[in-house]
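Example record

Each entry pairs one chain with its bound ligand, glutamic acid.
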Amino acid sequence: MTTAAVIAGNAYDVALENFDSAADALELSPDIREMIKYPERILTVTVPVRMDDGHIHRFEAHRVQHSTVRGPAKGGIRFHPQVTLDEVKALATWMTWKCAVVNIPFGGGKGGVTCDPKHMSQGELEHMTRRYTSAILPLIGPQQDIPAPDVYTNPQTMAWIMDTYSMTKGYPIPGVVTGKPISLGGSLGRNEATGRGVFYTIQSACEHLHLTLKGATVVVQGFGNAGSIAAQLLHEAGAKVIAVSDSTGCVYNRNGLDIPGLMHLKALTGKVEGFPDSEAISPRELLTLPCDILVPAALENTIDGGNASGVTAKIVAEAANGPLTPAADRILERKGSFIIPDILCNAGGVTVSYFEWVQDEQHLFWEAQDVYNRLERVMKTAFRDVLKIHTERKVPMRIAANMLGVGRVAEAVQIRGIYP
Ligand code: GLU
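Structure tokens for the complex follow.
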């Protein structure tokens, strides 16, 4: 088995284990479990693309609809060399519980194309995106399944999807995707929504733990959309971001990194490596640095039974999807770290996707401050709801979040009943 298959296979096992723990704690009946545990629909497609050198390359791609019980399937599209069907199934499953935790009227879905976007031209990416869109066309639509950005996809990718879908139908349909450029019906505040949501949940956790954010030390693993915005907002709030990593390297300064400067370097070179006024450290050293807040914002399973014991952070804020394995969870639980689980912590992205979809459907657009205020309300309410289950039922935050999400989907399926 390849490394990619090991990582991805793992992620779906983790998703199923998360579900079982929540279902047990909720004492869900076997009938309800059967109805909501597994994906409703899975489509695997071949995406042939003529590459710049003239040859045709076949990409494998998927779209998984895990649930449409509470509304249309919702979730991003990932372009990454390690994408597998199992990984997409895991991510789609997490989307269902995530949308239910923040109580937005969506189910869960996810898409993925196994490709290496860092080594493809804009033209190749556009052709691949358009052909993939046409292959999954029967599944998607503003009332059916609404894609969005995920790892290595962005507003431009969403614009190509919106255009391909609209050209096929014959009229513009902006509500088919979220995370679009503003000029195509995107929402103000969507691009930074995941990082902003992470920030709001960290504020809530600090309040709960009586920790002052000003002067708190922060380590961020992964400096993409979610990690960099979370770092920026924490920096602006007076926290000291002492170390940051991306797929190319890790930079450290015990007195705090200049985050706006680092974002500038990343935008210019695509790397954090070589940032002036910092020293290079290894990924393992990064995770074990003494700090108050650790933000894993990269991929699944980056903190596992092998490296979790070195983590000393008081708060672990999961900006990524599935960064902690169940073994890591158990170790950190024993050490007393407070975990803000992914389906709560990073739900700001899909929450503003919901706002974008509402604006598109109403053809009426909101000001940035309205988006921020509503997002803060949604995130802080969800945090309070999860914390209440955590304290009243004496379960870890992850189980509490899954109980809230799974419980809401279970309630909906029970009321809907079974067809025919
Ligand atoms: N890809 C993001 C996530 O994992 C956002 C999904 C969306 O906005 O639909 O939550």
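The first helix runs from residue 3 to 26.
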